[in-house]
Amino acid sequence: MLRHTRHSHSTRIVYRVFFKRWIRPRWGSINIRDVRTIAVESWLRQLQRKDGEDLANSSKAKIRNLMSVLFNHAIRYEWLEQGKNPIKLVRQSTLRQRTPTVLEPHEIENLLSQLKSPFRLMVLVAVTTGLRRSELFALKWSNLDFSNLTIDIQRSIFQAKSKL
Which of 39, 48, 60, 124 is deepest in the core (most CB within 10 A)? Predict the structure, then answer.
């Protein structure tokens, strides 16, 4: 059976991980009607990665959004009343906790001088195109159009698996 989905394979995997790692352990045994907005906000604030660092705000926001989708399904199937999605009121910032490190041109030049092929080329392509790692690792020669100076991103690699 062919299923139409608006999410990529890697997104579905991440959502599954979020559900199994974060949502189900905390909320799986609680009646859906007993979930409260403030309790979810509190829980999201205290989430941490395995290494003890706070979970990124963007990850917390994705978990919040996934929970909202689950509640919307519950409403659709009439397990909850219309308009009773407590997650819609959960506030969760998506602001970065840290400013990303951006290399200066001379730092990129120094890095490139230390690398050998194929890593030098990969870094050069990454810094000049802004491709994500998953997109960069999945590039094929057929994705490059030298006459039009374009790159056609058709797939990415997630957890060492190529996905269209």
Answer: 60
Q: What's the pTM?
A: 0.64
Please give the Cα distance from 20 to 5 (Å, whole number).
20
| pLDDT recorded at residue 158 | 66
* HEC-encoded secondary structure of the chain: CCCCCCCCHHHHHHHHHHHHHHHHHHHCCCCHHHCCHHHHHHHHHHCECCCCCECCHHHHHHHHHHHHHHHHHHHHCCCCCCCCCHHHHCCCCCCCCCCCCCCCHHHHHHHHHHCCCCHHHHHHHHHHHCCCHHHHHCCCHHHEECCCCEECCCCEEECCEEEC
Confidence of residue 2 (pLDDT cuts 50, 70, 90): very low
Q: Nearest 5°: phi and psi at 138?
A: -95, 0
Single out the residue of 71, 53, 62 nearest to residue 16, CA to CA: 62
Would you place residue 114 in the very low, low, confident or very high pLDDT band (cuts 50, 70, 90)?
A: very high
pLDDT in tens, 3-36: 556 766 677 888 888 999 999 999 999 998 999 9
